Automatic annotation (TrEMBL):
The protein's name: Fibrillarin like 1
HAMAP family: RNA_methyltransf_FlpA
Keyword Cytoplasm: no
Biased composition (Gly residues): 79-94
Principal location listed in the UniProt entry: nucleus
Organism: Canis lupus familiaris
Length: 346
């Protein structure tokens, strides 16, 4: 195609039954305003910078261009107006003031209802979310959303719990039957990292509970210590979870052990800590990452192998579930340690 051809040449180059092609040739060649013949054609808008809409040969242009009749870009979303009297681009427009009023309306109608797991809540609003009651209002830990709800004239702040960043949240949304972590619980958390999930456990157990957070990495440990400075129910322990005797003087007996260590010998690590700190009849939750244990075997085979190892250490698994779609080849196993004998009459 030769650039610079006039309208008459474009008419000769394209048959009468292809008016759109003539317009394309003319616009590409000269770049001038589209003549009267183009008016009324579907998807064609006149005016400066107009777009050819759904028939455009430039597929990256979605919706109309700026045009003479378009509102200011800051007041639009989606495609802009297609020029003076031109069709509006795909996606339509949305006034910023309208969207703000909708958000205010959604915030006013937001509510929180208790989850079946004590200390966990469901936020019902513009976007539903799993949340915990913020123990330190006004403070976030890892950039999570803070949601304020007024009920009975009292404002309470909740923190959104991201299941893609927390194995425990993924297990809850996946339908785990019991987490055994509740207000006033004493929890030993192995593999605390920077304190993302630990902070939500801190919210759940409240000021009368206690969570011992064990982390070996000093870099992540610094972040964990900073979280613990604002949350008095977190005790950070910067030690290797493989050697529980090194920190036995810092930790008392606990009700629950949660382990997310992602190590090939993680079942052994959990067993060592259970023998040292977990009371009889206490519970454990272990997050198993199949690839960290055996990358050559199937995930199901790895999970079954870990369950057998736990059983050999007086750790009785009661429940197992995978963490899809939040984590791939992950499973959480929930169980009890040295279950107490059932009381009953002879």
């Amino acid at each position: 195609m030769v650039l610079g051809r006039g309208w008459d040449e474009c008419v000769q180059a394209a048959p009468e039954e292809e008016p759109l092609k003539r317009v394309l040739l003319y616009r590409r060649g000269v770049g001038a305003q589209v003549p009267e013949l183009a008016r009324g054609n579907p998807g064609i808008s006149e005016g400066r910078g107009s777009s050819l809409g759904p028939h455009s040969s430039e597929p990256w242009r979605r919706g109309g261009g700026r045009g003479r009749g378009e509102a200011r870009r800051a007041r639009r979303r989606g495609g802009g107006g297609g020029g003076f009297r031109g069709p509006r681009g795909r996606g339509g427009g949305c006034d910023v003031s309208t969207s703000k009023s909708r958000r205010r309306k959604g915030a006013a109608s937001a509510s929180v209802e208790p989850h079946r797991h004590e200390g966990v809540f469901l936020y019902r609003g513009a976007e539903d979310a799993l949340v915990t009651l913020n123990m330190v209002p006004g403070q976030s830990v890892y950039g999570e959303r803070r949601l304020t709800v007024t009920a009975g004239g009292v404002k309470q702040e909740y923190r959104a719990w991201n299941p893609f960043r927390s194995k425990l949240a993924a297990a809850i949304l996946g339908g785990v039957d019991q987490i055994h972590i509740k207000p006033k619980s004493k929890v030993l958390y192995l593999g605390a990292a920077s304190g993302t999930t630990v902070s939500h456990v801190s919210d759940i157990i409240g000021p009368d509970g206690l969570v011992y957070a064990v982390e070996f990495s000093h870099r992540a440990g610094r972040d964990l210590v900073n979280v613990a400075k604002k949350r008095t129910n977190i005790i950070p322990v910067l030690e290797d979870a493989r050697h529980p005797l090194k920190y036995r003087m810092l930790i008392g007996m606990v009700d629950v052990i949660f382990a997310d260590v992602a190590q090939p010998d993680q079942s052994r690590i959990v067993a060592l800590n259970a023998h040292t700190f977990l009371r009889n009849g206490g519970h454990f939750l272990i997050s198993i990452k199949a690839n960290c244990i055996d990358s050559t075997a199937s995930a199901e085979a790895v999970f079954a192998s870990e369950v057998r190892k736990l059983q050999q250490e007086n750790l009785k698994p009661q429940e197992q579930l995978t963490l899809e779609p939040y984590e791939r080849d992950h499973a959480v196993v929930v169980g009890v340690y040295r279950p107490l004998p059932k009381s009953g009459g002879k």
